[in-house]
Design brief:
The longest helix is centred in the middle third of the chain and has 26 residues, at about 160-185. By secondary structure, the chain is α+β, with helices and mostly antiparallel strands. The strands form 3 sheets. Strands 3, 4, 8, 9, 10, 11, 12, 13 and 14 form a 9-stranded mixed sheet that branches. Strands 5-7-6 form a 3-stranded mixed sheet. About 40% of the residues lie in helices and about 20% in strands. The two termini are about 40 Å apart. It contains 15 helices and 14 strands. The protein has helices spanning about 1-5, 10-30, 35-45, 50-65, 120-125, 160-185, 190-195, 195-205, 270, 275-285, 300-305, 305-315, 345-350, 385-390, 400-420; strands at about 65-70, 70, 75-80, 85-95, 100, 135-145, 150-155, 220-230, 235-240, 255, 260, 320-330, 335-345, 375-380.
């Protein structure tokens, strides 16, 4: 069934999808999943590579438009060397004109009985790691501040976000897979749409404005593109393959670091800061540090984690710089995501940094099938479009959608900062 669901994906994209499914099949055997769970996992993950999924999302937006601040949303596209790459996210705001309002309430909106969600129960069977229902920041509402947007935050939990947002994504991919398996490439989109109960409930509540404050469990995430100095004045763009053990988006490619926006050290109002969260994820995912939630100082890791301390010094001295590049809405799970850029300007500083060692969330070399799946891989900043197409074709299905959006927003911002012109198509 997974092979059938690859649909018309061909060339490099089909090869990468097949490799990812092989890794997931190995994971299913190692986890001793029952046949139903293994089939569910493989069917859903194969569906991501089917080009009809993008066509369905465009249909969904046409018949049931989503609006933010009065503007109808549309899918993000990127022109590559030989064609357009459509990404299943919608851009909400561009650039760094994004402000965070103060957290107005410290009440945590936890979804009652979230652990009874069928998706959460399946997720527990798929992963060797139990769910930590820790507190997350949520996006309550946004307003136009005249020069960008201002985000009002709220508090929810990881389990609540899984049982709503991630369950929406699973519902969509499952319904899509069922229709493709039954009707082939002529699957009726209307039948898929009418089977999405969870998504329909949310869209009915906020059709006038997606971020109107009516959604209590809308977890907010952050993805950061790291662009670093290499030899001869060139720059690399970091990304990696997530490990098969991550039940959310297993074995998909993503920028590093990336994760949920969350307060973990008991100071939500102080931790409601994008750079603070990026520093934490940077230390966790690139240096394999573990947060100590019992720490009395909510900034303790600024000095105790060597990679983070080195980065903060680099930011202070101007060896690198940080900026927000935009806000996007992932159309698969309806999760808003702040995108950002960490730009390294000083090659000597980067070469002297502490040794990077990714954590369990990113694949180790023994987990992969080909060279693309290294825990840390890269694109060339000046030739990213051509190199991306050679690796993945004009297809988005092997990436976490919001991570792919963050990748291109970060590339554009880095080129602007470094005064590098985007290469013309065909070069």
């Amino acid at each position: 069934p997974a092979t059938i669901l690859l649909g018309t994906a061909t060339g490099v994209a089909a090869k990468v999808a097949t490799n990812r499914l092989t890794a997931l099949a190995t994971h299913a055997l190692e986890r001793k999943l029952n046949d139903d769970d293994a089939q569910s996992l493989m069917r859903v993950e194969a569906t991501r590579a089917n080009p009809l999924l993008i066509e369905y999302l465009e249909y969904q937006l046409a018949v049931s438009p989503l609006r933010i601040l009065g503007k109808e949303l549309s899918l993000m596209t990127r022109t590559l060397d030989s064609g357009d790459l459509t990404i299943p996210v919608c851009e909400v705001s561009f650039g760094d004109n994004i402000e965070l309002s103060k957290i107005e309430s410290l009440v945590v909106n936890r979804l009652p009985n979230w652990e009874e969600s069928k998706f959460v129960q399946l997720r527990n069977r798929l992963s060797s790691r139990s769910i930590d229902d820790k507190t997350l920041f949520g996006l309550k509402s946004i307003v136009d501040n005249g020069n960008g947007i201002r985000i009002t935050g709220s508090l929810t939990t990881y389990g609540s976000a899984l049982a709503t947002q991630d369950a929406i994504e699973w519902e969509l991919l499952t319904a899509f897979a069922d229709q493709i398996m039954t009707n082939g490439m002529d699957a009726p989109f209307a039948d898929i749409r009418h089977s999405l109960d969870k998504r329909e409930t949310i869209e009915e509540r906020c059709s006038g404005n997606m971020f109107d404050g009516s959604l209590e469990h809308m977890g907010l995430a952050i993805s950061t593109t790291v662009v670093f100095s290499r030899d001869n004045g060139r720059h690399g763009v970091m990304f990696g393959r997530r490990s098969a053990d991550t039940a959310a988006h297993p074995s998909l490619f993503h920028v590093i670091p990336a994760g949920m926006f969350q307060p973990e050290l008991g100071e939500p109002r102080n931790e409601w800061n994008v750079l603070h969260n990026v520093l934490k994820e940077y230390g966790e995912e690139l240096y394999n540090n573990a947060i100590d939630r019992s720490a009395s100082d909510w900034k303790y890791f600024y000095r105790d984690w060597h990679g983070v301390a080195w980065l903060l010094e680099g930011l202070e001295l101007g060896h690198c710089e940080f900026q927000i590049t935009g806000l996007v809405l992932n159309m698969l799970n309806l999760r808003p995501e702040i995108c950002s850029l960490l730009l390294v300007r000083n090659e000597d500083w980067w070469n002297r940094k502490p040794t990077i060692k990714t954590n369990w969330e990113y694949a180790n070399k023994q987990d992969i099938v080909d060279e693309i799946g290294m825990a840390r891989s890269e694109l060339s900043l000046d030739n990213a479009e051509v190199e991306f197409e050679k690796m993945f074709g004009c297809a988005s299905g092997e990436w976490v959608a919001s991570g792919l959006a963050a990748l291109w927003l970060g590339i554009d911002a880095a080129r602007t900062a470094l005064e590098i012109e985007r290469p013309t198509s065909g070069n």
